Structure formats: structure tokens, C-alpha cells
Amino acid sequence: MTDKMNFTRADFPPGFAFGVATSAYQIEGHAQGGAGRTHWDDFAATPGNVVRAENGARACDHYTRWPEDLDLIRDAGFDIYRFSASWARVMPEGRGAVNAAGLDFYERLVDGMLARGLKPALTLYHWELPSPLADLGGWRNRDIASWFAEYTEALCRRIGDRLWSVAPVNEPWCVGWLSHFLGQHAPGLRDIRATAHAMHHVGLAHGRAIQVMRGLGMGNLGAVCNFEYALPRTDSPADHAAARLYDGIYNRLFLGAMFRGQYPADVLDGLGPHMPKGWEADMATIAQPLDWLGVNYYTCKRIAHAPGPWPAVSEHLGDLPQTQMGWEICPEGLHHFLHFAQSYANGLPIYVTENGMANPDQPGQPDGARIDYLNQHIAAARRAMAEGVRLEGYIIWSLLDNYEWSLGYEKRFGLVHVDFESLQRQPKASYHALKAALARS
Ligand code: FCB
């Protein structure tokens, strides 16, 4: 294990941007400032869904401690801060009345970034759906595209003139598949029809939000998708076919829709019968022209054929070293997906919008494992760049230890340690290593 990054800023083209990412519900402390209830509060309050039934009510208290957090980002030499806004903080009921304190908060935050020379990279939706909209069916209801457009307009009319970039929805696969098919995230459904509807409506909401922002004269609008490297568990033709289908559902569905206006045929074989009526007519809205594509990447999976109804696949672990999440460390997958992203993005800039690892960090104990992980993945990215991939930035998940969704607070992804009792922040060795690598000489 090492205490140094294996690169410096000078190894990258001028203008290449480094950043850190967080999201609203995971750090803000959602009980404060007049925010409405979200489906994550409800999911967490239901026994068995979240480790120790933890929720985001207090989280890192970023709502009040944001100046200190922005100072940490600036002091490490990062260029971009990728953050998200909470729909329920802006509109507690999800529609209609706006929470003035919520809009004021995001304005303070963005102005605070600009004052520190940071580029604000906003995500409009990082999973905290207002509960009143969940009551109406949430992502299963086609009207969500209009509700989302209304929220987008309310927020962007206030801060849209000061943002560096915007992506509508963080990780559409998680909003659709993980939450409605695998049941692991709110609303915790396991239902193929709900999944097909949610997958489609996420794309539609994305497209409508892009249209709203173009209408407001905003630029640098993109999409942030997550990818998982699907490797066949064995060399059998059945496992190869299973891995290909898994790749379709996970990696090709949203890029196909957003960049080509088409869902992949192999995924439609299974989802087609469950899709909302008339979905074909929405594809042009989903495929709005974009300015960049963001790649979130963490790991690979070994995929096997599993007897049963479509998609008849099962996920397994291989023998690479694992992170605290139990995810294999597989930088080769990042290299693969940067080329993959480029094959869809038609020459647009690509960003790594999330990459990082959870580690059982103790304050004061060097997180060499995280430095190794980042070194390996950044090396894979440089290899892709040398081969011609137009990668223009690299954003690390995450600034702070935070609420890791159904796994609660024990999975630590931060470059900065957070004591969830005192809320004290303490930069880890990885933070210091990055600070040294990013220093401008
Ligand atoms: C991503 C999410 C982020 C965090 C990391 C570990 O899927 O966007 O909120 O949970 O994984």
C-alpha cells in the first residue's frame, strides 16, 4: 500500500478537471430547513430495508456545515464539485408550493462554490423522491415527467445561471431496476411491470428536464449513468448469453435510449410486454441532444444463466480483492466503459462522474487501500485517454463518509472521515495524497 497518487495534474491535458461528488439526502440532514418527507424516509422506517433502520434525517449536517465542506474541496485543489439538490427540499409536496428556505440554501451553496473557484455540477435527482409523489405511484406514473419538469424549472430559474453543468437523474438504472425489480432501494418493489414503467419514465423525465433547461438558455447539460462490467461466470454459451443480457439491461438500455432513441432489442424481448402503452412515441423526447456523458463505475460482476423467468441471470463474485462493499476491484472495467461511452457519445466529452471505494476507515489510520484503488482506476482512465477517449474530467465518490442508502452509515466512501456522533470532519490520507497530486506548480 502506498500513501501517494501515481500521477500529478501535469500528467493530464490542460483543462482536465478533477472533482469530488456527494448527494443531497446522503449528507445534508434532511430533517432540517423545511424539506418534505421522501420515499427514503419511508423505506428506512420499514424494518428490514436499511441496516439499523438508519435514515438521512441528520446525516453529515451539511445543511449547516456546508462552508467547512466547501473549504475542504477547495483546499484539496479540486476543480469541480458534483452535488445534488433534493426535490423535496425545493418542493416539499413534490409539486406546487416552493420552500423558500430550500431555494435559498441551494443559492447560498452555489454562490459558495463560485466564491471558492469551484465549478458547480448539479444533479437534479439523486433518489429522494417526495413521499406525496410516491403516493401517486412515483416513477410508475407517467405524470412524473411533468412533475419533474416543474421542479427543474423552479430550481433552475433560481440558480441555473450559475451552474457549470447539470445532469437530470443520477444513475437511471438504480432508479428503475435496483428500486423496482431488485427491491434494494426505495420504493423496494420487485415487480417487472413497475420496472418497465419506471425505466421508461426515468428516461422521459430526463428528456423533459433537458428541454426545460434548454428553454431557460442553460448549457453544458448531460447524463450520468452507472455501469457494471458484466463478465460471464464460466465459458459456457449460456453464461455468455446471460452476461450479454445483463449488460443490455444495466449498461446499454439508457445509453441506447438517450443517444440513439432506441431500446436494445434483447432487453425489449423481456420488458416489451410490460412497457407503458405508446412508449415508442416518447423516444424522441428521451433522446434530447446532450453536451456530455458521465460514467459512474465501481465494479464488475460474474454473470451466470439461472433457470427461471426472464432475465434468467444470477450475479456472482470472482476472486479479485474486494472493497468494504464486497465489490471486486476491477479497473479493467473502467477502461472498457470509457471506450463504450465514447461509442455512444458521438464525440462529446466524457467524464468519470463517480469512482471510489468504501473502506472500514478509522480516524488517523491511513486509507492506503483507497489510494491504491484510485491509482489503479485513474491509470485505467489514462490508458483509455492515450487510446483516444475524450475524457475531460475525473470525479471521486465521495467527499465525506455519508449515508450509503440501504447500508446505512457503516460503509465509508469519504476522502474525509466523518464522526457521526460529533460530526467532526477529518481528512484521510487519500485526501492528502490527492491534494499533493493536484497542486499547481
Ligand atoms: C452510487 C450512488 C452513490 C453512492 C455510490 C457508492 O451508485 O450514485 O449515491 O451510493 O454508488
Characterization of this structure:
This protein is α/β, with parallel strands linked by helices and 441 residues long. The chain has a single domain (9-438), classed as Glycosidases (TIM Barrel, Alpha-Beta Barrel), CATH 3.20.20. Helices cover 40% and strands 16% of the residues. It is built from 15 helices and eleven strands. It has helices at 24-27, 39-44, 62-75, 87-90, 100-115, 131-135, 144-159, 172-180, 192-215, 237-260, 265-271, 283-286, 331-345, 368-386, 429-438, and strands spanning 17-21, 80-84, 119-125, 165-169, 222-232, 292-305, 313-316, 350-354, 391-397, 416-418, 425-427. The strands form two sheets. Strands 1, 2, 3, 4, 5, 6, 7, 8 and 9 form a nine-stranded mixed β-sheet that branches. A hairpin with a 7-residue loop joins strand 6 and strand 7. Helix 3 (62-75) runs parallel beside helix 5 (100-115), helix 7 packs parallel to helix 9 (192-215) and helix 13 (331-345) packs parallel to helix 14. The longest helix has 24 residues, at 192-215. The radius of gyration is 20 Å and the shape is globular. The mean pLDDT is 98. The structure holds beta-D-fucopyranose.
